[in-house]
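[Q] Does anyone have a clean structure-token version of this?
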Amino acid sequence: MCSSDLNDTFILANRLLKAGAEAYWLAQPPTEAAAFGPGALYVPDSPSARPILARAARELGLDLRTVTTPPAGKKVKVANARIALWDRFGGSMPSGWTRWILEQFEFPFELIYPAQIDAGQLRAKYDVIILVSGAVTAPGGTRPTAINRPKN
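[A] Here you go.
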């Protein structure tokens, strides 16, 4: 078990998912780990999870606790969302910062550009599309698209 109050818990969750291990967010932790509070991360014991948990405790300094019985009550299985991050040709500072955050917390994502958005069919490929400042303009403004690039 691990508290979700710590940002590095999301690195742990992403590493577990990458390894194919199961993890759950708990509505309420069991009494023996009550200090972790609502949203605690529960990881069932498995050979794929053990080395990841040991590494997280050592490298990330996470406080991990073993519980004697699996938690009862409401829980949500941790799953990867298919994330897309908008960017424009030549780069965007807000997109760059968002990309840095996603990379720091080891979230898998793809960069997408205006032409991909214009082509549609995004729901089939992504669960989440992050549109940062400058991705969408006010009505009547110029949209940032591949067409707006200077012509050679």
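[Q] Thanks! Anything notable?
[A] Residues 6 and 62 are 8 Å apart (CA to CA).
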